[in-house]
Amino acid sequence: MTVTVAVDAMGGDHGPSVTIPAALAFLEETPDARVILVGLDAPCAAVLTKSRSSARDRVSLQAATEVVAMDEPPADALRKKKDSSMRVAVNLVKDGTAQACVSAGNTGALMAIARFVLKTLPGIDRPAIASQLPTRKGVTTALDLGANVNCTCEQLVQFAVMGSALVTAVDGIERPTIGLLNIGEEDIKGNDVVKQTAELLKASPLNFYGNVEGDDLYKGTTDVVVCDGFVGNVALKVSEGLVVMLYDFLKTEFMRNPVRRLAALAAFPALRAFKKRVDPRRYNGATLVGLRGVVVKSHGGADVLGFRYALLKAYTEVANGVLDKIAHEIAAMPAAISPTAAVVAAEPHA
Amino acid sequence: MTVTVAVDAMGGDHGPSVTIPAALAFLEETPDARVILVGLDAPCAAVLTKSRSSARDRVSLQAATEVVAMDEPPADALRKKKDSSMRVAVNLVKDGTAQACVSAGNTGALMAIARFVLKTLPGIDRPAIASQLPTRKGVTTALDLGANVNCTCEQLVQFAVMGSALVTAVDGIERPTIGLLNIGEEDIKGNDVVKQTAELLKASPLNFYGNVEGDDLYKGTTDVVVCDGFVGNVALKVSEGLVVMLYDFLKTEFMRNPVRRLAALAAFPALRAFKKRVDPRRYNGATLVGLRGVVVKSHGGADVLGFRYALLKAYTEVANGVLDKIAHEIAAMPAAISPTAAVVAAEPHA
Fold it and tell me: Domains in chain A and their CATH numbers?
């Protein structure tokens, strides 16, 4: 099966100078993939013609006349820019020309456009943002990382279903363990929504581990960590801020005087290996999960390597049938989880 | 002025073997302080008699017959253990014998007992847990870190007032900047409670900076960061988990082979300086703020140095009149913030 990925070539801080080389590198390592670059004609053609990549023949260009700005209000991007590179790329998934779409552009706009164009999967009220984080044991998939600031317990259960299916598809883990982010492990802890969510998860066919705390995220206690988008976004941003601060402190200490700088030289292989291990580029690519199509959001500042990882993520999700897996797991849930779940359960799956 | 600190000598993972040496070390560096050790007679006397500290004469022993267990439900600790070391220590603050109380015991029990015995300050609905975190610029005081899972916007504004007064008292900063933890800087971001809180803070006499995001916590963007206890607790625990993971990775890389281990030796001064800079013991001591008395919670696993920092924190808060400062700032707030604020404003301050 060939997987076609629509790439918003204009998105992100660097646009075509990063997205196009990344797309070609991705194609070189993924022989059964194709890419449709969506963007303004001139800048895309300029980068593309310079390429001597062997994968050049698996790239096609689709013109778009507008670009969504990084700080543009999502509602404006949705209503006023019908021919943006982002919108056209999502349209290609909608009409079946592509199976996935990747953009490093404005997150809010991508979510608004993807939700409007693709709609959510049956049984899913709202899409969520899911991402992998490095842990002491491997990786954890956390969601929602910022799409939904207020969540009902049914929605949190839907996130659990989506996270479970995503981990099965991407990491090949059958019945991944699900942790519910809380401020204590005991059942009595947390707010009412979290407490009720725990009850629903216990009664579900999912492999529910129980409540987990913030530090469990990096301990790798569970394969999936579920939380609302406010808490998830804070957890993610706090982590980013802390890593930057710690790197900064480490660098300062190693640069403090000539003796220390000499020590840094000796320590370089260890420091480089350390940095590589937590390299955020390796974890680049957040999935907008719950839609009728695979949509991956790359970090806006991603370089070629980072954007390539985001493309690979989209490809892997399609190749492993993540959408079918979510539909299947939602159908297996008790009817109470979602107003539409009972209907879905009665339908045959694709 | 002499400041008397009541110490729950039995609290924490190590009890008197840590709390008593820490109390003596604290007294040696703080000539105008006194300590009342509260605990079971025999174990406290055993540690105390071995001491040759010059500060020995500024320590007195107050017997208690019970100890609150680290995993005891707070309601049980409150109702069934009226003669616990924790309860007696808080009682000493209530009756004016001591001006502050420090415990490394069960956080929930300490909060329940302190709230029941001391009550909240006029104009404060609920106490919060406040702590200092290291940042790229210095320190930030964050609250609430876990006492209140559901907060109204009025309560969040009260946290801002308490945080502001705390920073003025402890760090000597007049009009500290206040950040409201959110998932975006724009006014339209976040849930309804956060949006309304921002409006109230804008209209207040506090030095409100605006919304801040998770990474601003460690950038040190503002002197105070306000959030509800669920989000604050997750942010704190996520940070703890991340630091442990990064240390672990760093250690693994430096121990991977003999050459790397040699490099680690050369890098030791830099690594030690780095570790010292983020040493959690230096930031030990969370303040239960908003009570009619100074109550500081030490980390349960704190060693002598860590517990000494918690004692010093309690002392500093008392010496700099933190309670008066909170009362003063609450009185200066518009009446809408708190049902009782209008009454407070009409009362003379101590």
Answer: 1-118 (3.40.718.10), 126-282+323-350 (3.40.718.10)
